[in-house]
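Notes continue from the previous slide.

Worked example: a multi-chain complex. Inputs as given:
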Amino acid sequence: MPDSTFASLPLAPELLTNLESLGYHAMTPIQAESLPTMLAGRDVIAQAKTGSGKTAAFGLGLLSRLEVTRFHVQALVLCPTRELAGQVAGELRRLARTLANVKVLTLCGGAPFGPQLGSLAHGAHVIVGTPGRVEEHLRKGSLSLAKLNTLVLDEADRMLDMGFQTALEAIIDETPSTRQTLLFSATYADGIRLIAERMMHEPVAVEVAETH
Ligand code: ADP
Ligand code: MG
């Protein structure tokens, strides 16, 4: 049986002690399937049902690559809705609370633009946002993704269903080709295959099938 303890992964000690204190004693199946590959730097397409711990999977992946002393946007997580972006940002902040001063900023539509400009001016390590608003900030020059290390497409199937394909492509065009791209989804819709082919570099696909 594969080792499902977080301690089997090359994670910083601060992250491991925090996971213990959060009550995350063992990896969920999708975490165990995806994290070793993610931490090795590969692009990953991960598919597992809702509630299976996908946020911590990509969260630990992106936090591991973060250089906290460098204050620029290193990771971007795109989510289909403001509510989901808020939940993801909350989980990332919980996971990062033992790392010194990791700044996670949300950029979502439906929220006023002005305060987001102010927050961006102060800088952030991680942005969590919805595609439309992130694209708007890129167009206006208030956000730069020139030094991005990790791009996460969370609930990619829903983002495609909601018509975010063009915004996703415009955003990806503004990121370095050397980035790591992580795609998370509850289903493997046709559009996902297309996005993967166009936006990912030799992705490794992992899937945790539903057990009945
Ligand atoms: P998904 O994105 O797959 O729908 P979430 O990332 O929202 O799932 O996680 C569902 C719940 O599981 C959250 O409340 C999260 O805190 C919890 N969780 C995630 N990983 C673990 C773990 N390894 N051990 C215990 N709880 C976990
Ligand atoms: Mg999720």
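Summary box: The pocket of adenosine-5'-diphosphate (ligand 1) is lined by residues 24, 27-28, 31, 48, 50-56 (CB under 6 Å). The chain has one domain: 28-207.
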